[in-house]
Amino acid sequence: MARAAPRTREQSKPSTQKPAAQGGQVQSLDRAISILERLAEADGMSLTDLAQSVGLAPSTTHRLLTTLQQRRFADFDEEYGVWVVGVGAFNVGNAFLRSRKIISLGRPVMRRLMEEVGETINLAVEDKGELVYVTQFESHAPMRAFFRPGRRAPMHSSAIGKAMLAEMSEEALRDFLHRKGMQRFTDQTIVDPAALRAQLLQIRQRGWGVDDEEHTVGMRCVAATIHNEHGEVIAGISISGPSVRVTETRLGELGAKVVQAAEEITEQIGGVVPRRLQAAAP
Fold first, then answer.
1. Cα distance between residue 61 and residue 45, in whole Å
2. How far is CA 18 from CA 25, 26, 48, 67, 266, in A?
3. Whole-number Å distance between alpha carbons of 99 and 8
4. Residues forming beta bridges with residue 121, ordered by sequence position
5. Per-residue pLDDT tens digits for 227-276
6. Distance between alpha carbon 218 and the CA centroid of its chain, in Å?
7. Structure pTM?
8. Which of 21, 68, 130, 181 is the most buried (most CB within 10 A)?
9. How many angstroms separate the CA atoms of 82 and 202, rounded?
10. Of the candidates 85, 23, 229, which has an alpha carbon nearest to the alpha carbon of residue 94?
11. Burial letters for 146-171: b for 16+ Cβ neighbours within 10 Å, e otherwise?
12. What pLDDT does 23 receive?
């Protein structure tokens, strides 16, 4: 019987080639996602600017972009000489919207509210301590608010964000403020934790939050929260418009309407409005 040749020291070592290759693939995937995220924040970027923004060499960035372009996740706008997000990214992102019935069930309510108050209506969710706007009905007025779907916004300076923060426990709020801070955007931005807590108490008492030119000068928003079947906040809806139309005297009226819309969407998705908010609603 033939004997097998003894294994040498090198042959006995486990191969590391496959994990190394997998590591390279993961790194390339992470870099490609970074490129897509950066493109999503901009309306278009040159190769040089994009490479600098994500911290990669232009040659590496171009190689990843061409791969994304082949899969239609990125595209090159020859007229302006910039890279933009491709339709493939939209198709994947749209799957997220399909998976959230809040979008499809909420939009008819949003449309009615927009037609009733004449201002832009937004729906946003929280992600990693920031708001992400997922859908919108724009006002028909020439001068109106606009929030591009996918746009991110800070919680402490937005009406939806503050309405959500108002339902946090003190411990969760303290942790949030420690992690995120309170950046100033306008002279109206609340940057003092004590002042924010005082306003959150008002929001809990009346049931709706306000952004009084705190993120953008000349723009006011009024918002209320949407809840799941456990009474937990999962989204928010807001009325946004120029401060010349969304005046201080209209805030109470608009607050009542946005609370009603939020409760209707909550009911549509099988959610439950917490009793404390039912008692606080106008």
1. 12
2. 10, 12, 33, 22, 49
3. 55
4. 137, 239
5. 988 899 999 999 999 999 999 999 999 999 999 999 999 998 888 888 76
6. 22
7. 0.66
8. 68
9. 46
10. 85
11. ebebebebbbbbbbbbbbbbbbbeee
12. 62
